[in-house]
Amino acid sequence: MLFTGLASGSSIDMDKSFNYFASNIAFDNLINIINSRETQEEVAVRLLSQHLLLDGPDDRFISSKNYNELKNEIPQDIYKYVVKSSKTNTENEFSENYENGGVKSLPESINKIDYEQTVTNLMALMNSDNVNFVYSLLNFEHPVYSLETMSKVKSIRISNSDLVKISYEADDPAICQQTLAIFNEVCIRKYKDLKENGSDAVVKYFEAQLEKSQKNLTAIEERLLKFNQDNSIINYYEQSKAVAIVKEELEVEYSNKRADLAGSEASTRKLEQKLKIQELIQNKNDKILKNKKLLGDLQYKIVMMEAKSLESEERLNNLNSLKKEANNLEKEIESSVSQLYSFQNSVEGVPIKKVLPQWVDQIVETEDLKAKLNVMDTRNKEFEQKYANYAPAGANLKRIEREINVAEEEYLEILHGLNLAKLKYQDTQLSSNLKAVDPPYFPLKPMPSKRKLIIIAVLLVSFIMLLGVILVMEYFDNTLKNIDIAEEKLNIPAMGMLAKLFKSNSQIDLVSIQDRLMDIFMQNLNHTLKKQNTFNQPKVITIFSMQKDEGKTVIANNIARKLEQSGKTVLFLNHSNIEKQKNNKTKHSRLHKLLGYQDPRNDYSHPFLKTSTEETDGIDVKAYKVDKTFYNAKTFEDLNRNISAKIKQDSDFVIIELPNILEINYPADLMINTDIALLVCRSNRLWSKADESLLNNVKELTPSKLQFIINGVELNEVEALVGELVKERSKFRRRIKNILRLQFYSESHI
């Protein structure tokens, strides 16, 4: 008995709640491990190794009988896998001998190292192929080491407790105890290994994932450090904020300087415009002097022309032209002098000479502003470069920091899972620590035999099965069987039944039974004829059947004999193609004879089967042909024209046997004119749709004249008509029969 602690055992997890389904699954796992093929194989190999290492029979481990049988069965080449050293298994060296709760697993003469090595060798041999001796020993029907024998070890959970009971039955008490002891050791170790290996695998998984996550986190942090070094970042957010402020101030100052430069350049251009008038003044002076010289020349020409006394029209025209030209020059000189004055003084009335110093000062200031703007442009380009670096740096830095956050969360989550896995591993070690609270003991008293109970159970089951088979056969039996079933299926009245003719023994008189059945039939026949109040002479009885081999001829012969015995004259007409009675020879089953049943073979020597083909006083047997005359026959005279008038006149009864009407059409007019139409049916035949359809046609022709007789009925069905059959039975059998029929006082006299 093992204590598992699966349901109520202690646990490291303080918040762990009881789960009924999980507890049941854990118990199922343990029981399946105990019943597994691998466990059974190891137990069988360990038990075999233990016995092979023994120097001789030891009643603590194996009986002398089983040890000698083992020695005879084991081939010599198996002993090369057995490891045996001179070192013994002393109690000081191997205290594990009592590790199974006080059960000694190895004798002192066997070294545990040798034992384990032998087990390893035999296991390797067994797994090497499927034709070696160890594999065959385990997989065939060996009474000690086979897997079929090991599968008889039963393991059940005791009620709803934490205890599992393991039991085993064997014909050797030592083998029984050692098998359970080895099962105890193997299943505890296997269950513990499976539980701890599963939890240990989870711990190793989390440790591997934690190491991988830590390397990933370190790599991302190294990448962040290198990124800060490459971009000279100490504190990105403070640095980017300072750069933004300085850039904004620089942009304001740059805008102001650009405005000052624009004003200075405008003033300079104005002064330069004023300074450009000096050139105009020089040009004007040159032009005035030139015009003055031209005016002097013109005036000289005018004076010279006026001085001349020659007054011609041509001279006058030239003089007027010169005067006009001189007049225009004077006006131009006056205009130039006026412009010269305006050029020499500004609009504001400032002399041009005073504008020059202002222009020089303005030029100096403009150049100064340009130099400052050049410096500011350089600084702007530097800030633009910094901005170009800082803009993607922020996004990259944010991505790296996000990766670090994700890696940190992953690391912490895996670390949490590792802690839970280690906790689960410790909890598994506690829960897989199975203990043997009731070790297997050495049985001294064998278990009581269950042979009688098994025999009774087998007999009871056999009786129930036999009864079930009989009931099923009875339920699915669709034959006519007896009068009641036949009347229900045929839906016409019955005239009688006849028993099956088998070879009778001294216990039953089948001849008298068949005679009694024929008497009952004849009584019913006479009663039917009297009810019809027919005064026709002779009375016509038509006997027909649906199929062949129904027994028409035999029954017709016996009816004719019964009528002849009663003093009647009978004319028997049968068809010319009548088949002779088949003499089928069947063998008597030994089972019937052994069980005391009736011989099922037909008794062809029975007087009932005697035919009336011989000439008999009172019976005239005539044949007819199945031809056109037969199909058109209206009376029995039409069947055979050779019947003498004396026979027709003297006959009291005419029995007509028709062929089986399923194969040969019957004469309808003859059926109408008959007194009684008698259908012969075998009790063991099925009534088909074709039979029913044809019978309905006959019913329409002879609605009140049609009756049937069932042939070949079993004797147990005959008792329903003639009463209990007279048999020679012992007093004990009669009492048993009365008890089964609940007739306890049937033999008591009144």
Automatic annotation (TrEMBL):
- Show the coiled coil region(s): 203-267, 309-339
List keywords of the entry alphabetically. Coiled coil, Membrane, Transmembrane, Transmembrane helix
Gene3D superfamilies cross-referenced by the UniProt entry:
P-loop containing nucleotide triphosphate hydrolases
The UniProt transmembrane annotation reads: 453-476
Output the PANTHER family linked to this UniProt entry. Answer: FERRIC ENTEROBACTIN TRANSPORT PROTEIN FEPE, TYROSINE-PROTEIN KINASE
What is the name of this protein?
A: AAA domain-containing protein
Q: What is the lineage of its organism?
A: Bacteria, Pseudomonadati, Bacteroidota, Flavobacteriia, Flavobacteriales
